[in-house]
Amino acid sequence: MNKFLIVGLGNPGHNYVGTRHNIGFEILDQCAEHFSTSFEELKYGSLAKFKMKGRSVHLLKPSTFMNLSGKAVRYYLQSYKINLNNLLVSADDLHLPLGTIRLKRGGRDGGHNGHRDIIDKMNSCNYARLKFGIGSDFDFGEQSNFVLGTWPENQREIVNACIKKSISAIIDFCSLGIDDAMKNHN
What we know:
α1 packs across α5 (156-176), α2 (69-79) packs across α3 and α5 (156-176) runs antiparallel to α6 (178-185). The protein is built from 6 helices and 7 strands. By secondary structure, the protein is α/β, with parallel strands linked by helices.
């Protein structure tokens, strides 16, 4: 049976709920709801599981904070014997406009500390990413406040539509593979 690990990056705790930086968690929460499953608190994170078209899908929200996500990712890939090709990491992206998602086969961290730590801990940058555009509408020196800020009410409809596109991209990644998923969603 094919096994997949879908990781949503974010920071644990009430202070971070609803922030742009936690969109990875929000995508996984809604994906779990879509597949009628729930998260269980385990070592290094919260995990939900479901079966889809003969595939076993594991959703992981690391509890190790964004900048230390690699430890949790490595642990669950090894524990469940999941191939690196079946890893998809979802996170916010300042370089994409709000309402845009991009699937990517691999690459550098793009200035994202969560990806930087995963690449460091895995000693590889060859894993798929689901980038969720949050835009870059902030003044110089305000990046941290922007990503840790909550979505304005007038953007919520766009965000929700983009989350639905993200869930569709996750389904395609698990059922069709990264190449076809990229063709369908980029």
